[in-house]
Amino acid sequence: MKRILITGGAGFLGSHLCDRFIKEGYHVIAMDNLITGEIRNIEHLYPLSNFEFHHHDVSQFIHIPGELDYILHFASPASPIDYLKIPIQTLKVGSLGIHNCLGLARVKNARVLIASTSEVYGDPTVHPQPEEYWGNVNPVGPRGVYDEAKRFQEAMTMAYHTFHGLETRIVRIFNTYGPRMRLNDGRVLPAFIGQALRGEDLTIFGDGSQTRSFCYVDDLVEGIYRLLLSDYPQPVNIGNPVEITIKEFAEEIIKLTGTNQKVVYKPLPTDDPKQRQPNISKAKAILDWEPKVSREEGLRITYEYFKSLPEEELYKAAYHREFTT
Ligand SMILES: NC(=O)c1ccc[n+]([C@@H]2O[C@H](COP(=O)([O-])OP(=O)(O)OC[C@H]3O[C@@H](n4cnc5c(N)ncnc54)[C@H](O)[C@@H]3O)[C@@H](O)[C@H]2O)c1
């Protein structure tokens, strides 16, 4: 049985990856310090003998007994509300965290795949963004703690690949959504659905002409699975290229939720990207991958998930954990 370590395994994407690798017959070791993750995302896996959960901060030394074939490094605060609240931890998990994972991979002779992000492109001046684009990032702006951590993480991973010959893979993930996102994580999709469920007006930052593209989580997981098993060490974009303006998206959410809320406008935050759309030619050519789930279907499944949550989730403070650096 192949053994895989998934850091950030109790998070939104990490927990879906745990499910997928369990389904593929792997022994899955999820590691998480629960800084933004939720135990309820993985507790259905607890009874399985091929699943383990390690409550651990990956920015500290990692010890895993036994063999390891693969490491997926997904631990990192991922939404602006999280990484602005815990900037130092974000920088540490993107630097010390990946260093620990790469060191472990060398000892175990394991292949590492890291979760990078479309944020490495910053506020892009090239549209859609191909992997060759180097980005337009402000290192000292508020988003720098996340963007630069991810850029450093890519550089460190590539250095281990070229210098130590380690098997590495880099996925640049574009906006992904689905069940197990947190309603209060500040990202646009749960924010709109949460507002609709609470009967509040939907808040658009800026004039709503900025675009985003949303990938359903099952499509992303399929892309990551294929990339891990491929022999391609350079970064690969995985995302859904279907682009929509935030204003149109708000209207879709109002239609989906059957509510009659209005849209209200607030000033655009600093360094908010105006456009986001992946160029997925590489994923198509190398992985024979493209997204399959339409926004209509994905949104319906996600909305049903949010509706099924206990009502108090709707009113949880945007950030409810206490941490020291
Ligand atoms: N969701 C997206 O659209 C998206 C887009 C681009 C990149 N990503 C990347 O994918 C990964 C997962 O994102 P997500 O959306 O699932 O976010 P998430 O917050 O739901 O999951 C992140 C998980 O990492 C854990 N974590 C954070 N720091 C840790 C540490 N030091 N040690 C151990 N665990 C730690 C958190 O507790 C959480 O469970 C992140 O690396 C993120 O940057 C996500």
Automatic annotation (TrEMBL):
A Pfam family the protein falls into: GDP_Man_Dehyd
Keywords assigned: Decarboxylase, Glycoprotein, Golgi apparatus, Lyase, Membrane, NAD, Signal-anchor, Transmembrane, Transmembrane helix
Pathway: Nucleotide-sugar biosynthesis; UDP-alpha-D-xylose biosynthesis; UDP-alpha-D-xylose from UDP-alpha-D-glucuronate: step 1/1
Alphabetical list of InterPro entries matching this protein: NAD(P)-bd_dom, NAD(P)-bd_dom_sf, UXS-like
Top-level taxon in the UniProt lineage: Bacteria
GO-annotated cellular components: cytoplasm
Co-factor(s): NAD(+)
Matches recorded under Gene3D superfamilies: NAD(P)-binding Rossmann-like Domain
One Gene Ontology biological process: UDP-D-xylose biosynthetic process
UniProt EC number: 4.1.1.35
Group of enzyme by EC: lyase
GO molecular function: NAD+ binding; UDP-glucuronate decarboxylase activity
Record-annotated NAD(P)-binding domain positions: 5-301
Membrane topology label: Single-pass type II membrane protein
SUPFAM superfamilies documented for this protein: NAD(P)-binding Rossmann-fold domains
Annotated localization: Golgi apparatus, Golgi stack membrane
PANTHER family documented for this protein: UDP-GLUCURONIC ACID DECARBOXYLASE 1, UDP-GLUCURONIC ACID DECARBOXYLASE-RELATED
Family that this chain belongs to: Belongs to the NAD(P)-dependent epimerase/dehydratase family. UDP-glucuronic acid decarboxylase subfamily.
Protein name: UDP-glucuronate decarboxylase
Organism: Larkinella arboricola
